[in-house]
Amino acid sequence: MEVALKIDVDTHQGMQTGVPRLAELLEREAIAASFFIAMGPDNSGRAIVRVLRNRGFLKKMFRTRAVSMYGLRTVLSGTVLPARAIALAFPQLMRELAARGFEIGVHGYDHVRWQDDIDEIGESGVREELQDAFEAFRAIMGAPARAFAAPGWRTNDAAAIAIDAMGLDYRSDTRGRYPYRCAIGDRIMATPEIPTTLPTLDEVMGRRDLPDEAAMLRFYLEQFKPDALNVHTIHAETEGMGQLDGFRALICGLKERGAKFVQMREVAARLNRTETPVCEVVRVEMPGRSGWVAGQGPDRAVGAP
Ligand SMILES: [Zn+2]
Q1: Which of 184, 188, 157, 190 is nearest to 171 (CA)?
Q2: When comparing pLDDT for 166 and 54, which is higher?
Q3: Model pLDDT for residues 252-282, shown as the tens digit of each residue
Q4: How, if at all, do strands 181-184 and 187-188 pair?
Q5: How far is the CA of 152 from the centre of ligand 1 (A)?
Q6: What is the domain-level CATH number for residue 73?
Q7: Which of 80, 105, 295, 302 lies 20 to 30 Å (CA to CA) from residue 232?
Q8: What's the gap in Å between 37 CA and the centre of ligand 1?
Q9: In angstroms, what is the span from residue 273 Cα to ligand 1's centroid?
Q10: Looking at the domain assignment, is residue 6 inside a domain?
């Protein structure tokens, strides 16, 4: 069983508190992982605006206890309180993570803008977000980023084409089954896509059939496929903070089952790009998540339109 842990960092608080805790735990357990960090301002408070338009979001705020989990400062960030920087506020921490052997990739610039408005900001807006994010990464790390993971698993044709032109080692923008190459019409993107294969904790938290940590642990251990690559996305704000004990139990359970932990870049390095399946990207809904995410469509026979 292979497990790639993808750790998304969406907020200032997640970077400040969740990332060091996760790094310490993973280091102690000798577990490889890949951090994807939002580079720009923490506008997570703007997500509150979604409450006014989206009943699903309001329900989720209560269900996942967003205020107690994220803290009031984060929930108001970018609204009545000014937005704080995420990666740019912690350049030393970023460099330390890399020095300790963790992989670091780009998780967008303004996470909220990308997630909420990707279809509204147009090609120029998408390019602006990518450019700002990759420039910030280079400024902090002194070397270009090699991987991108879309905020909120949202992408569109303009984003896919712009990312492909950057010549990255891989991207991780979607939810799916196994690594693939994205098809847009007749075009096949060269950059492999390594999708998240498991549901995230915030999607299953509060489910009636998973009333406690023991049930949640059993559920997750059943989700990991023994004969496949499992890509599990966790959040610095969730597993790195309030849900750290549950995450520790999960990695111990996986270790007991003989899991081998790999970084996403190792997965990308061994992919044979021309033999990787070709799939369209489709928009899907995930139980427990409001709105759409990008998903891996059915395999397309290579050569077929
Ligand atoms: Zn994110």
Answers
A1: 190
A2: 166
A3: 999 999 999 999 999 999 998 888 999 999 9
A4: antiparallel
A5: 5
A6: 3.20.20.370
A7: 302
A8: 8
A9: 26
A10: yes
Above 80 in pLDDT, residue 133?
A: yes
Residue, of 63 and 16, whose pLDDT is higher? 16
- Residue 196 counted as domain residue: yes
Q: Which two tokens stand for residue 17?
A: 């508190």
Residue 16, CB-side half-sphere exposure with 13 Å CA sphere = 12
Is 305 part of a structural domain of the chain?
no
Ligand 1 centroid–CA 211 distance in Å is: 25
The tally of domains found in the chain comes to: 1
Residues lining ion ligand 1 (Cβ < 5 A) are 8, 10, 151
Ligand 1 centroid – CA 107 distance (Å) = 7
The distance of Cα 179 from the centroid of its chain, to the nearest Å, equals 15
In a domain, 21, yes or no: yes
What does the pLDDT look like over 135-154, one tens digit per residue?
A: 999 999 999 999 999 999 99
Interval between CA 239 and ligand 1 midpoint (Å): 13
Q: For residue range 62-89, what is the model confidence (pLDDT) as tens digits?
A: 666 665 656 666 666 666 567 788 888 8
- Comparing 191 with 74, the larger pLDDT belongs to 191
- Distance of CA 86 from the midpoint of ligand 1 (Å): 12
251 CA distance to ligand 1 middle (Å): 21
Q: Has this prediction a pTM greater than 0.85?
A: yes
